[in-house]
C-alpha cells in the first residue's frame, strides 16, 4: 500500500484535471498475494486501476521490449514473498519448509517479511531448544548483512525496536492438546469451510422463503466478531458472546424482544 500511495510522475491527468491514475500490472501469483491482503476497493481508492493478469507470453514480451522499459518511471523491489493469513500470521507456502527449516537458505524469506514491516528486530530464542538458537543466529546474520548493504534499512521510525521470537513446541507442550477447543478450530471442524487463498463457507440465506439462496461467505479480518473470538477458548467465547449480545441489544432496542 505504501508503494501504491507514491505520487505518479509529474503532469496533468488525461482528463485535464489534477487527478492522475496509475495502472497495476501483475502476474497470477502477485494477484493472489494482493487479493489476499487488500480489497479491490482499497486499491481503487488510491487512484490505482488494474488490468487483466499477465500471461507468460505477455510477460516475456514485456521483459524483452526496449520500448516498454523506457516507459518505466521508477523501479523498486518489494520483498513480499509471503502470504498474510491473519493480521499477525503469515505463511511462506513452501511445501519443503519443514525439511529445510534450519537451512540458511530459508532466512531470506523471514528477512523479506521483516523488510516489509520495516523492522530489524532482535532474535532471542527459547533456551530449551538448540535448533532454535541456530535458526535465530542465521536470521540475525541475514538481517545484519542486508542492513549492511541497504543503508536505509530499517527506516527511521517512532516505534521501539521489535523482537522476533524463535521458538518450537518445547516451549509449550500443552498447546497441541488444547488447541482444538478454540473458536477458530471449532469453526473449521464443524462448518464446511474452504481454506484456500481465502477462508470461505457456504450458508443458506432466507431459508424457507421464496428467495432462499445458497451463498458463499468469506471470513476475513473485516469480521470483527471473528477477529475478536477466533483464538479464545470456547468457554471464554460463550461468556463473552453473551455479554456482547447484551450490549448490542441495549444499544439497539429495535432488535430487542417485545
Describe the structure.
A hairpin with a 3-residue loop joins strand 5 and strand 6. Residues 10-14 have low confidence and may be disordered. The termini are far apart. The relative contact order is 0.07. Helices cover 37% and strands 12% of the residues. The longest helix has 20 residues, at 130-149. It contains ten helices and seven strands. The strands form three sheets. It has a three-stranded antiparallel beta sheet with strand order 5-6-7. The chain has a two-stranded parallel sheet with strand order 1-2. The protein has 258 residues and is α+β, with helices and mostly antiparallel strands. It is globular and about 70 Å long. InterPro entries: Sec-1-like_dom1, Sec1-like, Sec1-like_dom2, Sec1-like_sf. Belongs to the STXBP/unc-18/SEC1 family.
Amino acid at each position: 500500500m505504501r508503494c501504491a500511495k507514491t505520487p505518479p510522475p509529474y503532469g496533468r491527468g488525461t482528463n485535464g484535471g489534477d487527478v492522475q491514475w496509475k495502472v497495476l500490472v501483475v502476474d497470477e501469483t502477485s494477484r493472489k498475494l494482493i487479493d489476499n491482503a487488500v480489497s479491490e476497493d482499497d486499491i481503487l481508492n488510491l487512484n490505482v486501476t488494474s488490468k487483466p493478469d499477465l500471461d507468460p507470453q505477455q510477460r516475456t514480451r514485456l521483459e524483452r521490449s526496449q520500448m516498454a522499459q523506457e516507459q518505466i518511471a521508477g523501479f523498486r523491489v518489494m520483498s513480499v514473498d509471503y502470504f498474510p493469513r491473519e493480521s499477525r500470521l503469515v505463511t511462506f507456502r513452501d511445501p519443503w519448509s519443514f525439511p529445510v527449516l534450519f537451512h540458511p537458505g530459508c532466512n531470506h524469506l523471514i528477512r523479506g517479511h521483516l523488510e516489509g514491516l520495516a523492522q530489524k528486530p532482535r532474535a532471542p530464542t527459547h533456551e530449551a531448544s538448540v535448533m532454535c538458537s541456530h535458526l535465530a543466529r542465521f536470521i540475525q546474520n541475514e538481517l545484519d548483512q542486508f542492513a549492511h548493504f541497504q543503508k536505509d534499512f530499517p527506516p527511521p521510525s517512532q516505534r521501539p525496536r521489535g523482537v522476533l521470537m524463535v521458538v518450537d513446541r518445547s516451549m509449550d507442550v500443552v498447546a497441541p492438546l488444547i488447541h482444538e477447543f478454540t473458536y477458530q478450530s471449532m469453526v473449521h471442524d464443524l462448518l464446511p469451510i474452504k481454506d484456500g487463498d481465502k477462508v470461505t463457507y457456504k450458508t443458506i440465506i432466507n431459508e424457507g422463503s421464496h428467495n432462499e439462496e445458497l451463498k458463499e461467505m468469506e471470513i476475513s479480518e473485516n469480521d470483527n466478531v471473528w477477529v475478536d473470538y477466533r483464538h479464545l477458548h470456547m468457554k471464554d467465547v460463550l461468556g463473552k458472546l453473551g455479554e456482547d449480545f447484551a450490549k448490542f441489544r441495549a444499544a439497539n432496542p429495535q432488535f430487542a424482544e417485545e
